[in-house]
UniProtKB/TrEMBL annotation:
Keywords: Cytoplasm, Methyltransferase, rRNA processing, S-adenosyl-L-methionine, Transferase. Specifically methylates the guanine in position 1835 (m2G1835) of 23S rRNA. Residues 1-182 form the RlmG N-terminal domain. It is an enzyme of class 2 (transferase). One of its GO terms (molecular function) is methyltransferase activity. PANTHER family: RIBOSOMAL RNA LARGE SUBUNIT METHYLTRANSFERASE G, RIBOSOMAL RNA SMALL SUBUNIT METHYLTRANSFERASE C. This is Ribosomal RNA large subunit methyltransferase G. Residues 201-370 form the Methyltransferase small domain. Belongs to the methyltransferase superfamily. RlmG family. It comes from Parendozoicomonas callyspongiae. InterPro entries: DNA_methylase_N6_adenine_CS, RLMG, RlmG_N, RsmC/RlmG, SAM-dependent_MTases_sf, Small_mtfrase_dom.
Length: 375
């Protein structure tokens, strides 16, 4: 655990999920830069009330401004959980902080908007359009990120969807973006949610979902090598995205019980929409969650998973390892975890160490489909 020191005081902050010997901080230089800017341009006794804070990863910004009763809006269930966790660490009352998932729009007109750039540009564009409709004319949005993630195309996106835009000088390799609401801009309608078709499946993608424009090649390969489930099997589509894997199994097996899980609110909503769009019945459940932490042990027959190898802009296999560990816990004896991964990630080593077995189902030049069973 490390301590953030900012003009708004000090905070002890942890990343979630909590790991032993964590080497990464729960904030970055862009968070520090944004907090410094807010303090430098505001009277400490007259800070903006109820600011809209968007894509705050671990609660750093929102908790620093807790007394201003902010609204935290974002797509990550884990980010909302991290804010609650870090509030407890610092004995901060968050009863006046509103946590808003990305699938809901703010219901007020914010006069102060602070945003961390999401990795997903389609999500950013949709957020900018939504804020521009809500905020009063002339409101300045202040966005922050590391300079290496801010490109000319990023600034063009702000200009096109929000208003006149400029950037700050870099500080500790971080940069701020200032964009002012122009109500005269004609942005057109958002293209999301959009429906894709693949092998007679209709799949609904919202802007926050991975591979939004078409079904990614890894999922297409995995669809050819999914397990054959018994009629009454209980199956989890873990990290479900738009639900392609679970919907495919649900269409092939009229009695299997499906549960779709993702830490992205938009992914869970997309999976739900995909399920309904394919006229499937009410035997599926949908949860925004941190992997499988709320599932009982020894309760599931099959877990299918296309694990991510990054958390935001941070690359690593810690999320995949957590998925594998929790899958082992929730599977019944004889139950199967089946995954797909890039060949170079070496997931077979981790699975064999954890389950005691790992079998290659299929592979090509880029991907490998692996199966491990709970002994």
């Amino acid at each position: 655990m490390e301590t953030l020191i900012s003009p708004f005081g000090s905070l002890q902050l942890q990343r979630l999920p909590v790991r032993k010997k964590e080497t990464l901080r729960a904030w970055d230089a862009a968070d520090e830069y944004l907090l410094s800017h807010i303090a430098e341009t505001s009277d400490q006794n007259n800070l903006p009330q109820q600011p809209l804070i968007i894509n705050d990863t671990f609660g750093c910004l929102t908790l620093s401004l807790a007394q201003q009763k902010p609204v935290m809006w974002g797509d990550s269930w884990l980010a909302h959980s991290a804010l609650k966790h870090n509030a407890q660490l610092n004995s901060i009352d968050i009863s006046q902080i509103k946590l808003l998932p990305s699938t809901e729009s703010p219901k007020y007109s914010p006069t102060a908007v602070f945003l961390k750039l999401p990795k997903n540009t389609c999500l950013l564009e949709e957020q900018l359009k939504a804020i521009r409709e809500l905020a009063p004319e002339g409101t300045t949005l202040v966005a922050a990120d590391m300079a290496k993630h801010i490109h000319s195309s990023t600034l063009e996106l702000f200009e096109k969807n929000f208003g006149p835009t400029k950037t700050s000088l870099a500080r500790k390799k971080a940069r701020l973006i200032f964009s002012t609401v122009d109500k005269n801009i004609t942005t057109g309608f958002t293209e999301f949610p959009k429906t894709l078709e693949h092998n007679q499946m209709q799949l609904v993608n919202r802007s926050g979902v991975f591979s939004r424009q078409k079904l990614d090649i890894g999922t297409r390969f995995f669809l050819e090598h999914l397990p054959v489930a018994q009629q009454d099997s209980s199956i989890i589509d873990l990290g479900c995205g738009n639900g392609a894997l679970g919907v495919h199994i649900g269409m092939a097996n009229s009695q299997a019980r499906l549960h779709f899980v993702d830490e992205s609110y938009m992914a869970v909503q997309s999976a739900h929409d995909s399920w309904l769009t394919n006229n499937l019945d009410d035997r599926a459940q949908f949860s925004a969650n941190d992997c499988l932490s709320n599932f009982p042990s020894d309760s599931v027959d099959i877990v299918i998973c296309n694990p991510p190898f990054h958390q935001g802009n941070t690359v690593g296999d810690q999320i995949a390892w957590r998925m594998f560990q929790q899958s082992l816990n929730v599977l019944k004896k004889g139950g199967e975890l089946r995954i797909i991964g890039n060949r170079h990630l070496g997931y077979h080593i981790k699975l064999k160490r954890l389950f005691g077995n790992c079998r290659t189902i299929a592979n090509n030049s880029k991907f490998v489909v692996l199966s491990s069973k709970k002994i």
